[in-house]
Amino acid sequence: MARPFAPWRGFAAMPQQVRRLAVVIVLLVAAYFTARHFLVPRTFGEKGHYRAAAVDSIAVLPIHYAGREACAMCHPAEVAKKAGSFHRGVSCEACHGPEAAHTTDPIGHKPTAPRDRAFCVRCHAYDPARPTGFPQIDPVLHNPVRNCFTCHNPHDPTPPRPPETCAACHGEIARTKAVSPHAQLACTECHTADPRHAQAPRQFLPSKPASREFCGRCHASDAPPPAHLPDARPPKVDLATHGPRYVCWQCHYPHYPEAR
Amino acid sequence: MQGYIYPNEFELQWSLLIVVYPYLTGLVAGAFILASLARVFNVKEVQPTYRLSLLTALAFLIAAPLPLLGHLGHPERAYEILMTPNTRSAMAMFGFVYLWYLMMVLLLEIWFDYRKDLVVWSRGKTGVLASFRRLLTLGVTDLSEDALRFDRRAGKLITIIGIPSAFLLHGYVGFIFGSIKANPWWSSVLMPVVFLFSAIVSGIALMLVIYFFSTMLRSRPVDMACMDKLGSFLLYALIVDFSLEMLDFTQRLYEAEESISILGQMLSSRLVLSLIILQVLIGTIVPLVTLFLVAPTVRKRGFLKVPDEFRRLLYFVVAVFIQIGIFSTRWNVVIGGQLFSKSLRGLTTFKVGLLGIEGILVAGAIMLLPLVILYILVKVVPPWPDAEAVVESELTGADPVPAVQPS
């Protein structure tokens, strides 16, 4: 005979401990979901793991930046000048500050121009974390005291004469190479660089060693000592058997001190 | 600083409090696993530490999130990780791992274990303590044979669930470190396992210290059988832990990834004191040799015959050494992982401050807090074997009385 469905009977038959604990746990779980109900923001999770309404509350904040295109209308000369030179990727407002107010009221809100040395140095001081090829100077040594804009037009900062050393833009490589076995080799020993590389680096990329034989010029067992480095004694290896099937710099990156 | 480091590596982001955190959770997991061994495998000798271990685990568990809250600096927002669970973040799931372990394992097990005593202790009494104990019984005053048997069986079941949960709690901490791909010092699948075993080692050592100390304070005789058993457990756990660490070490040496040379430099300069001397020598080799010689493992009496008084003192000293060693282990993992540059070419330095939220004073206070909590817990629910209530049987009608009135 089928018994009528009565789960409470089963519950009542359980040990007292289980019944009490069940009540406590149910209360806790209920408290959790009640708390969630009140504490989790309404729009949470609609678009992702965040409060969707946050987008709207950010959107109503006052706008400070006018954006790159906004300046072109009234300052075509500066825009054109900058577009043709190194700072083409640097937005006007990165230097002049947020100027939304200036675009609507040009006379009432005059932008400031950062004329002191400390400003340019924020981007151009030597810092090993900067990407390779980024022009960097030592602010203490680089034409001290005078303001940068007296020599570099900020909208076209092309230096009065092109940088002479590769270290100007490849500071980190230069500094590691200086403590490597190849310290006495010039960069141009291994890279042929067009002089124009210093003016338009990406258009005129220098060469890079491409084969094992390249290093073999100095390191092969039968290589003559490099004529222009009479004191250098490059250690010799047998190209045929030493690390075959790989290019040398997979094991010895020649800029690095641990090249050995 | 030495060699070449990136600018953002000069200052360590995870400092002293993050060292304290895995140390504390390790003690929780370790103490609990010891209690579980006693219960599941029914190891008679260590019974005197069973309840004490549970309470210790609880006390340390309550304090365990404090270093994290202090480090993150916005304790008032802590509830948010529970309100909006992010299942894709291992760190964000901590709240649930923690809650599961606290609510479903530790508190439940303690409740089932103490229910009978709570009923007996609070029966017919008035006063704050008695009322509080009565509240803790949740009104379940049934002391019948059936009910008591149910308590025991439920307790055992929870212990069995509890062991993997304790593994989860501390393995999880190791997992967080082990899954940081970019850091060759941390990234290792062995990390959770090594964490776990070092946790067991530290937990057993802690219980040895606490047991010894509390019996001394209560001027009761120290149970040498218990101390010996704890000593031999400690030895076994230490052997496994040390072999795992050596395995990890040899594997790294053999793999010899590009990080090996900087890690070698770090070992031989920055970590000499904390790793070679404190962790390996004081924290592992000395305890291993001492325990091997005096603890009854292979032979019934140990290799050296040492009088009881001296032997328990040795155990105590060894356990303290191990605590120092394990703390150094945590230090070496957390701090060591940030001392070398991701460029693999330089090392930075780390000095702990005295004041401030990440300073020695706060860290010390957080590490002492569990002992204060333990003291309070012991007052509310005394774990001593001689305080346990004996229930003859409800049926005889005799009012059950505790053997010794708890103070």
Account of the 3D structure:
The complex is a heterodimer of chains A (260) and B (407). With 260 residues, chain A is mainly α. Chain A has a domain at 161-260. Chain A contains nine helices and no strands. Chain A has helices at residues 7-13, 16-39, 53-59, 76-83, 92-96, 100-104, 117-124, 171-177, 212-219. The longest helix of chain A has 24 residues, at 16-39. Chain B has 407 residues and is an all-alpha fold. Chain B folds into two domains: 14-179 and 354-398, no CATH class; 225-350, no CATH class. Chain B has 14 helices and two strands. Chain B has a two-stranded antiparallel ribbon with strand order 1-2. In chain B, helix 7 packs across helix 8 (191-217). The chains are: A mainly alpha (260), B mainly alpha (407). Chain A binds chain B through residues 15-17, 20-21, 24, 28, 32, 35-36, 39-40, 44-45, 49, 127-129, 176, 257-258, and chain B through 4, 6-8, 79-80, 82-84, 86, 88, 103, 108, 111-112, 115, 138-140, 142, 146-147, 150-151, 154, 261, 345.
Q: Tell the overall outline of chain A.
A: flat
Shape of chain B: globular
How many helical stretches of chain A? Answer: 9
Radius of gyration of chain A: 34 Å
Rounded mean pLDDT score of chain B? 89
Summarize the structure.
The complex is a heterodimer of chains A (260) and B (407). Chain A is mostly helical and 260 residues long.
What's the topology here?
The complex is a heterodimer of chains A (260) and B (407).
Chain A: H1 7-13, H2 16-39, H3 53-59, H4 76-83, H5 92-96, H6 100-104, H7 117-124, H8 171-177, H9 212-219
Chain B: E1 2-3, H1 16-40, H2 50-63, H3 65-72, H4 80-83, H5 94-122, H6 128-136, H7 145-178, H8 191-217, H9 224-255, H10 260-268, H11 272-294, H12 308-334, H13 336-339, E2 346-347, H14 360-380
Antiparallel strand pairs in B: 1-2
Helix pairs in contact in B: 1-2, 1-3, 1-7, 1-8, 1-12, 1-14, 2-5, 2-14, 5-6, 5-7, 7-8, 8-9, 8-12, 9-11, 11-12
